[in-house]
Design goal:
Chain lengths: ~425, ~250
């Protein structure tokens, strides 16, 4: 998608009137900023290992009303059907198929904008955030009131299903008021041929509240999934994140967590499973802006065929963020000769009295371990599967919701069955 | 049980075993003693089929069949077992899961009913007491965080569970204190019977005090230079290896 195609689509969205006029200058500002920067290329440090050429070559268009489903969808094929779900189909909110648990409030982006006096917390960390602001379509805010604990998880299910080359730009705010908690599932599914999802999720986690966020990225083969997530944490809040990514041709996660209040903690986990020519990139920035905060980045990849991956993790400990405790770990297994991993864990420390560690390993499966297992009567394929399961088990086992955990295990098993390792 | 004839084998282009002959009959306990670099590890690796070791000449027969083309798992399913000198640590791979998979692979191979979780648990709990290990083992990952002694006991536990007919104990005594050594020796001795054979590979005579061999072989430079009864091990302890070197 070149700049002139973006311009054409931008003119279209500016002509749509289902948002109030307040949104237009916000879009225009963001789009101008985007035009100044342009799409990232490999000369940008943060995009060195991810070539966006396949995206640049396709002219995506905005999703139209005609891209909404003609009839009720069966979403059971995407699993997790016991979970309250908000369905977004090709960028269109499907009210009739959606439900939310008691205690959660769902408001439209327009209403949210009115409440905030249209002073959005502008996200500028990535050019894709600018694009999202310029093109934001399906937008809403989920909020949990002070002191409310939501027991049943809530899911946003993004389904892409189109022969056409559409671009969707969901904008979701999630706000947890003081001492509340929720488990949130973000799931990407569908059978689109070519599709560009560029979502921005902005989480506000107030004092003493807890969020568990599980992101399942299973878009179909030729699609592009760009996920921008911004987490702003207050004092003593807790955020845990798990990504299970095995879909898309190119997937890029831009996860920015900001520990702004004393004693806040975030635990970020990711498992990427890639095959064919897939490329999954995890760009993870954790900002320690307050003292006594704890963070971890724990990302793993299993790479098969000619697939590739990136882990670019950065933990920044600002001046004054004393007693920071942070850990970064990136472990990758190359299952084929043609696979490639780029791993770059980084620490930036501007405070004294902190405990920070980081490490990264990439390699093939341990041949000694394979032989050890074979010597006990187990064939080589099963031996490799056993090791691969061992590699991922700790992360999957740490999901506390059993139903979701079981789902992730079943998806992992299918992936393993479909891949010759 | 095991018949090795004129075995020449090595790694890369280096020949390490240079014409080795060995016959182990059912129920026999053989010990191979030798210095570092004499070829002890190569011998255990070629018998169990580790990749990277090449046989240039000779044969290894197990129960009358040549096994040199067999995969490691085929050898294991046929009843071969090795207690590793350096048991491999496998993070995230649970002991229970691993050992149950191994046992069921063997049961299935022999056309027997595979064990379910409850059946396996009952069996493994009995075996654990034999090597003085507690049930916390069942939740742990294979050899992860195990002490040297625990790792070796885990090897013996696996042997007791998988019930091989020929067990190779490769330097099982290395790094063990005397208590752990006794536990392991007791486990092995209880497992001995008229059908089961052992090949104990060791550096020192120490282990052989507790596990009495029928025949001791001295390996020097890829060949057995002397074989004899258990008294040969004692003689080696006193005199070292140099009197046997040409």
């Amino acid at each position: 998608m070149n700049i002139s195609s973006f311009q054409t689509e931008f003119n279209k969205i500016m002509g749509r009137d289902y948002f109030t006029n307040h949104v237009k200058p916000i879009r225009a500002q963001a789009f101008n900023n985007f035009l100044e920067e342009g799409l990232p290329n490999k000369n940008w440090e943060d995009w060195r290992h991810t070539d966006l050429k396949p995206i640049k070559e396709i002219d995506f268009r905005l999703s139209e009303i005609s891209d909404a489903p003609a009839h009720e969808l069966d979403i059971t094929e995407f699993g997790l059907d016991d979970i309250h779900t908000i369905v977004i189909y090709n960028g269109h909110y499907q009210e009739s198929m959606s439900s939310i648990p008691n205690g959660v409030r769902l408001i439209s982006l327009s209403e949210y904008g009115e409440q905030k006096g249209w002073r959005f917390n502008e996200q500028k960390d990535s050019p894709f955030d600018l694009l999202n602001t310029a093109f934001m379509d399906s937008g809403f805010c989920l909020s949990v009131d002070k002191g409310v604990q939501i027991e049943s998880p809530i899911r946003i299910l993004f389904i892409s299903s189109s022969e056409n080359k559409i671009m969707v730009s969901p904008r979701v705010y999630i706000e947890l008021e003081e001492s509340s908690s929720v488990t949130f599932v973000e799931q990407h599914e569908g059978n689109s041929k070519e599709y560009l999802l560029n979502s921005s999720l902005i989480m506000g986690i107030k004092r003493n509240s807890r969020m568990c966020h599980i992101r399942i990225q299973n878009n179909s083969g030729n699609t592009f999934n760009i996920g921008n997530i911004h987490v702003h944490q207050d004092k003593e809040s807790h955020y845990s994140f798990y990504q299970f990514a095995y879909g898309s041709k190119i997937g890029r996660l831009n996860l920015f967590t900001n520990l702004n209040g004393k004693g806040a903690e975030c635990f970020l986990n990711g498992l990427a499973l890639t095959c064919d020519h897939q490329h999954l990139d995890n760009h993870i920035i954790t900002n320690h802006n307050a003292p006594n905060c704890t963070s971890s980045q724990n990302f793993k990849s299993l790479l098969n065929d000619s697939s590739s991956g990136v882990f670019n993790g950065r933990t920044v400990v600002s001046k004054g963020a004393e007693k920071t405790d942070s850990n970064q770990s990136n472990k990758n297994i190359l299952l084929s000769k043609g696979s490639l991993m780029n791993s770059n864990p980084q620490l930036e420390i501007y405070a004294d009295d902190v405990k920070c560690s980081h490490g990264s390993t990439t390699g093939a499966l341990d041949r000694d371990a394979i032989f050890y297992i074979q010597s006990r009567g187990i064939d080589m394929t099963s031996a490799k599967a056993l090791l691969v399961r061992g590699f991922v088990s700790e992360m999957i086992e740490s999901i506390s919701n059993k139903y979701i955990k079981q789902y992730v295990i079943s998806k992992f098993d299918s992936w393993l069955n479909e891949n010759t390792i | 049980m095991l018949n090795i004839q004129d075995l020449h084998a090595g790694v890369d282009n280096k020949e390490i075993l240079k014409g080795l002959n060995l016959e182990i009959k059912p129920g026999e306990m053989h010990a191979v003693m030798g210095r570092n670099g004499s070829g002890k590890s190569t011998l255990s690796n070629v018998i169990t089929g580790r990749e990277g070791f090449h046989i240039s000449k000779g044969n290894i027969e197990y129960k009358g069949q040549s096994i040199i083309e067999w995969s490691p798992e085929k050898r294991a399913l046929a009843g071969l077992f090795m207690s590793f000198q350096y048991p491999v640590v496998m993070p995230g791979v649970n002991n229970t899961y691993f050992l149950k998979a191994a046992l069921n692979a063997k049961l299935k191979h022999h056309g027997k009913q595979e064990l379910d979780a409850a059946g396996f648990l009952k069996l493994i709990k009995e075996k654990l007491t034999e090597v003085d290990m507690d049930t916390s083992y069942l939740q742990r990952a294979v050899n992860e965080g195990f002490s040297g002694g625990e790792k070796k006991r885990n090897e013996i536990l696996q042997m007791l569970t998988l019930e091989p007919e020929l067990a190779i104990l490769d330097e099982t005594d290395s790094g063990l204190d005397i208590d752990a050594l006794k536990i392991i020796a007791d486990g092995v001795n209880r497992y001995r019977n008229k059908e089961r054979s052992f090949l104990v590979i060791t550096h020192y005579q120490r282990l052989l005090k507790y596990i009495e061999p029928d025949i001791v072989h001295v390996l020097i430079d890829g060949k057995f230079v002397k074989s004899g009864g258990k008294e040969l091990a004692i003689e080696l302890e006193e005199k070292g290896y140099s009197w046997l070197e040409s």
